[in-house]
Specification:
Layout (H helix, E strand, L loop, with lengths): L24 E6 L13 E3 L2 H6 L8 H14 L5 E6 L5 H4 L8 H7 L6 E5 L17 H19 L5 E5 L17 E2 L2 E4 L12 H9 L21 E2 L2 E2 L5 H6 L5 E4 L2 E6 L5 E2 L8 H19 L16 H18 L17 E5 L5 H4 L4 E5 L20
Parallel strand pairs: 1-3, 1-4, 4-5, 5-7
Antiparallel strand pairs: 2-3, 6-12, 8-9, 10-11, 13-14
């Protein structure tokens, strides 16, 4: 062998991780087919604008889908996958999230076998479409909220795939006082976004919110100031620039929209409301996403015990050793996959897992074949209001 210097490349030292399934999101928007590369009612996975170009999607042939994806990747960056499907421009928002509509979002979700955690929907109707605004929006938005909640509930209960839906507030008239108060509703898996990156648009910037959420862990509020401003240089509430708009009224009515801060450049989201009562545990997407992740982990753990044979006491109850082992396993799986990642309020290095699992030892599993398990996870708090009392003093510091 000739004398030489050999340098070997090491790998794995940067602790890089693959994009999390927590941010596996679907986008359904109206559009048109493109030759043999992009068909309607067909699911696709894209991870960059280069892959979007490969599908033949452009600003000319599919302006809505192209805008959404451009803003998504501008916010999230290349390499973050998003799952998309185009639908005909005759399909309304309420049709997209109609669980009985096999050609709507259900096709996208079923194709990816429950992988998706969230859905974002938008439409550009066929030419000649008109509507008479009701409560400041296209009336179809109200039906879409109801359908979306049913859609999401069905996936959680029948397919063990909990998820949320973000609907654009299509056709916003620009008058916040006219809007329905979403804080009186019970759609805790549904959010409505108002505001776009172009003036006088009937749509909302679905790509921006999906992109910000795609790079945010489940417990992270999309309005977190520390994460910096959003990528768009301009945002509007219909025709009004965000900095001049009545954002406070929109916020108080439970919509997600854009806002600004004095002394801070750029635009931020106001909060992460769902269309639910303020007393609902899941009136924010942070809570919704956090509990949904705990749900998936607990389901995967508990599924391993289904129809398994277990030792029992003479009265048909489970031995304490079995109960404690099962409780520990559930807590451990959730703690490792959530608390250790900073997604639950706890610190496993100190023994605080941020999760509790309880199984009543007195359950007669022989008589009922039913095992009841209670799981509680501890969320984070979010300072939404900060009051400061500032004044002079003559007392030496």
């Amino acid at each position: 062998m000739l004398p030489r210097v050999k340098i070997n490349f090491e790998n794995g030292n940067l602790n890089l991780v693959a994009p999390s399934d927590d941010c596996a999101f679907g986008i359904v928007a109206t559009g048109v087919a493109v030759a043999s590369t992009f068909a309607l009612a067909t699911p696709y996975k894209v991870s960059s604008m280069d892959e979007v170009a490969t599908l033949g999607i452009t600003g000319a042939n599919n302006p809505l889908m192209y805008k959404i994806l451009s803003e998504f990747f501008a916010e999230a960056g290349d390499g973050i996958p998003v799952y998309i499907m185009g639908v005909p421009d005759t399909m309304k928002l309420s049709d997209m999230v109609d669980y009985t509509n096999a050609a709507g979002a259900r096709k996208l979700f079923d194709y990816f076998s429950g992988k998706l955690r969230g859905l974002f929907i938008s439409r550009k109707p066929a030419g000649g479409y008109t509507f008479t605004a009701a409560n400041g929006l296209d009336p179809d938005v109200a039906l879409a909220r109801t359908n979306a909640q049913t859609f999401a509930d069905n996936y959680a209960t029948s397919k063990y795939a909990p998820m949320f839906v973000v609907i654009e507030g299509y056709g916003f008239t620009g008058v916040p006082l006219d809007l329905t108060d979403l804080t009186t509703e019970s759609h805790n898996r549904v959010s409505v976004l108002l505001g776009d990156t172009v003036a006088s648009s009937n749509n909302a910037a679905i790509g921006v919110i999906a992109g910000r959420m795609a790079i945010s862990p489940v417990q992270r509020n999309i309005g977190r100031v520390k994460d910096g401003p959003l990528k768009p240089l301009s945002t509007f509430l219909f025709a009004t620039p965000t900095e001049l708009a009545d954002v406070a009224t929109v916020n108080d009515k439970g919509y997600i929209t854009f806002r600004t801060f004095v002394g801070q450049s750029g635009y931020y989201f106001n909060d992460d409301f769902t269309a639910a009562l303020p007393t609902d545990d899941y009136c924010h997407l942070t809570a919704r996403r956090t509990i949904d992740k705990a749900y998936r982990i607990a389901y995967a753990t508990l599924l391993q015990w289904l129809l398994d044979e277990v030792q029992i006491n003479t009265d048909g109850t489970l031995p304490a050793t079995v109960v404690k082992a099962w409780q520990k396993q559930v807590e451990s799986d959730i703690a490792i996959q959530m608390t250790a990642k900073g997604e639950l309020s706890g610190d496993i290095t100190t023994g605080d897992r941020g999760v509790q699992c309880y199984i009543d030892e007195s359950q007669n599993i022989v008589a009922t074949s039913l095992l009841k398990v209670t799981i509680r996870v501890r969320p984070f708090g979010y300072p939404r209001y900060i009051d400061v009392y500032l004044g002079f003093t003559v007392i030496p510091a």
